[in-house]
Amino acid sequence: MLVVDNLKKDYNGFQAVQGISFELEPGDVFAFIGSNGAGKTTTIRMIATLLEPSSGTASLFGVDVTKDPMAIRRMLGYMPDFFGLYDDVKVWEYLDFFATIYEVPPRERRKVIDNVLELTDLSSKRDAFVQSLSRGMQQRLCLARCLVHDPKLLLLDEPASGLDPRARSELKELILELGRMGKIVIVSSHILPELEGFCNKVGIVERGQLLSFGPTSDLTRSSGTTKHLVISTLGSPEGTLAWLTSQPNLTEARLNKDGNIECSLEGDDAAQAQLLKSLVEANLPIRTFADRRIDLEDVFFQVTTGAVN
Amino acid sequence: MATWLKESVGGYFDNPVATRDLRVHFRNGRIVILLVLYALFVSLMAQLSIGNIQSYPGSIASAQRELVTAYFSLTGLIFGLVSLVSAMSAAFSVVSERQRKAMDLVFSAPFSARRYVLGKVISGVRYSAILIAMSLPAMAALVVAGGATTLDVLLHCALILASSTFFTAVGVAFASYAKNFIAPLAMTLVVAFVWSVTLLTLSQSLRVVSSISAPSVVPTAFPFVSCLGLLTPGLGAVSPTQPVQVYGFTTQAWIPALVVVLLAIRFAIVAATTGLEFPIGKAARTLRVHGLVYVFVLGLIIAAAIVPPTSSFGDMYQYSQLASRIFAPVLITTLYTAPFGSDRMNQPPDRTAFTFKKILWPYSTNALAYGLLLCAAWWVPFLALASHARNGIGLTFIFHSCLITGFFVALLRCYSHLTKTTEKAKGFLVLTLLFMVALSVGFAGDGTALRLVQEGSFSVYDLALIRPWLGYTQDSFNFLPVHLILLSVATATLFYAAEKRSRRG
Ligand SMILES: Nc1ncnc2c1ncn2[C@@H]1O[C@H](COP(=O)(O)OP(=O)(O)O)[C@@H](O)[C@H]1O
Ligand SMILES: [Mg+2]
């Protein structure tokens, strides 16, 4: 279990992270969303024991990051926002380097390297130089490196940036699989569609503050007091639209590009049922009446103000 | 015990950082060409000097002396090149790994900063060893010509390797704090300069000697110190096999020199580790403890090695000269291990007041207290062991030295408020120190300042007073009370200004 409590980072008087708190359970895949400069990398680096928090704590299964960093590091796989390359290193040397660092005994190193290469489908690239690999291969190699010691927490900082759609969907599969294996996975991104559909928790960060945090389903469902609805009609929607606009508890009734009506209703489920009843009683030609599915992008734009650091 | 052994010995063997560097550094052919060019250059220099001497017009004895000089110049050249190459290559690889974020991968893994630093030092020293091996033919040529003995060459090689290891560790230490390559480069050169100047002035009483023409025992009041000249080969031209007296024992000069440089290497490695450790607050405290222990041990060794002078002022002058020259490394240790940043950087926001319990923590509010603790560690062995220091002059001198430390700490506190970053502030302080050294050498080195004072064209300040390097003369001693008062006032004012500023901001 990862507990982040009021984490702050101050760079020479500039508050890059201003008190972020959240909790994650094993198996959680957490999408950490924010624009560039929002403070995602800073937060992740503090959890990864690379940056000392100015105040606040983070602890993984009860171990505090600043009190026992070595114990945290044994449970941690971290992938930086851009691939930490070494010049002139071959693929197997790169893995050998990390196998030694992760305390794999000399006799077993060869076997571990071969396994990892096979797992990541890079066996044919064993003697290639790391910088000659494609971006997707490099990303796989870097992720493979994070996995050699079977970590409990994975910190992936913008893992999908610069990948082609196929590599991206492979990565998605891999991350989902890691979540199913019971690891805590934190994936940061500023590209929203990339995260859609595989995270079960979402946090939106802006200017160093976590504006909203919770299960994805909670955030993307219409929130308690406001219902987002899509109504389609038989024939012209004008009459229905005019009727809706006159309703007191309805806001923003408008036509979308498909010619359907979108509106927001202030009220609970009962109010929604009442609206449908009124529509039918008013003899309007209603064909469908549905909750509008909102995606992460909608949530993001709702929650954030677009302010930047 | 087993884990401790594994951690301390395992750092040297099976070090992934050193292994990786070995694979990478010698992969491309450019390095071979550079090494060959280096060997050719050194051989050429040796050949030129031997050629000059062969057509030397003077007596056989003076030709012999010329050969010895040529040998020392050559070792000096090799020492300079080797240290420069290994220190720079190690510092550069640390900085570039930080810039590429390759370091993040290493330090998010359970890999200690110490092993990383050791790995980098090992790969720097590997260059040194190769370069030294490639200089052997040139050195051998001078042995054949008669400028040195084979044993001289071997011991010099060992000392060059040890000294260059020290500079490599210093380079890594600065690189581990730096974000770009310029700062560690500049700072390493500054340290090399200060180190050489200090050791050179320590061993200046020695003439160029080799074991071929060595006197039986080094003719100096402070024999232990003179052998440190071996650590700047070519400059402090001492023969490694020269007999020296240390605590009444006669030993060869290279042994104490090697011990000192090994201690220095260890300190540099601890300093380098601190820059990379997480969390840095705890590591900085370790560094400060090391600083205290080192200064204390240094004080103990030197105080014990000093031959007690008779009680006249002239002897006290000589004594203060020595003690104050060695005071330079103490000052550097203080400046390096004490924190000086404005409180915002080094201090938890809820703590601004000084408490004794936290004296070893790297908070800027206890910079002065820590500086004085270092002074105590340095001077207590002197007071305990050197009975001749326990008189009016000795105590005044000790007070003066502590005051100077306080002055520099206060100055640094002010600089760090002005520049906002500790690195810049330390840079400015180094410049100030260099300026004062230059002044003292320029004005007071040969008594010029005294003459100026006597002629009335130079007022109250004999610059002998603000440089702790050359000791007092009778005349500067007369000004001492005035000077001490002025220095106290200046220190107090600077400190007051810094503290007021930090309380406000
Ligand atoms: N080392 C640093 N020194 C000063 N400011 C920094 C440093 N690193 C990041 N910042 C600032 O902190 C803010 C957050 O950065 P970051 O965490 O990298 O954002 P993100 O990863 O969300 O794009 C940015 O405004 C950035 O300029
Ligand atoms: Mg980022």
Describe, in plain words, how this protein is organized in 3D.
The complex is a heterodimer of chains A (309) and B (505). Chain A has 309 residues and is of the alpha/beta class. Chain A folds into two domains: 2-219, P-loop containing nucleotide triphosphate hydrolases (Rossmann fold), CATH 3.40.50.300; 226-292, Alpha-Beta Plaits, CATH 3.30.70. Chain A contains ten helices and 14 strands. In chain A, the strands form three sheets. Chain A has a six-stranded mixed sheet with strand order 6-7-8-3-9-10. A four-stranded antiparallel sheet of chain A has the order 2-1-4-5. Chain A is elongated, with a radius of gyration of 24 Å. Chain B is mainly α. Helices cover 71% and strands 2% of the residues of chain B. Chain B has a two-stranded antiparallel ribbon with strand order 1-2. In chain B, helix 4 (60-99) runs parallel beside helix 7 and helix 8 (182-202) packs antiparallel against helix 12. Chain B is globular. The two termini of chain B are 47 Å apart. The A-B interface holds A 10, 12-13, 45, 48-50, 52, 54-55, 66, 69-70, 73-74, 76-78, 80, 82, 84-89, 93, 96-98, 100-103, 106, 145, 155 and B 14, 16, 19-20, 23-24, 27-28, 97, 100-112, 278-281, 344-345, 348-349, 420-421. The structure holds adenosine-5'-diphosphate and magnesium ion. Adenosine-5'-diphosphate binds at residues 11, 14, 16, 34, 36-42, 309 of chain A.
The CATH superfamily name of the largest domain in chain A is P-loop containing nucleotide triphosphate hydrolases
Which shape of chain B, going by the Cα principal axes? Answer: globular
At the first level of CATH, what is the class of the largest domain in chain A?
Answer: Alpha Beta
What percent of the residues of chain A sit in helical stretches (DSSP H or I)? 25-40%
Could you tell me the radius of gyration of chain A in angstroms? 24 Å
Radius of gyration of chain B: 24 Å
Number of helices of chain B: 18
Tell me the helix content of chain B.
over 70%
Class derived from helix and strand content of chain B:
mainly alpha
On the 0-100 scale, what is the average pLDDT of chain A? 86
Unreliable spans of chain A are none
Give the total of domains of chain A.
Answer: 2
Low-confidence stretches of chain B: 205-221, 310-314, 343-351, 444-463
Number of helices of chain A: 10
Strand order of the largest sheet of chain A: 6-7-8-3-9-10
What name does the CATH topology of the largest domain in chain A carry?
Rossmann fold
Largest sheet: number of strands, sense, barrel closure of chain B: 2 strands, antiparallel
